Amino acid sequence: MLLDEALRGARDAGADVFSLRCCDMQISGCVECGACDETGECVVDDDMQKVYPLLLQCDVIVLASPMFFYGITAQAKALIDRCQALWCKVKLGLLPDRKRVFREGAGYLVCVGATKGKNLFDGVELVAKYFYDALDLKYGRGVFVRSVEGKGDISRHPDALAQAYRLGQNAVATPGWIVENQ
Question: Which of 25, 131, 132, 172 is within CB 3.0–4.6 Å of 80 for a Cys-Cys bond?
Answer without folding.
Answer: 131
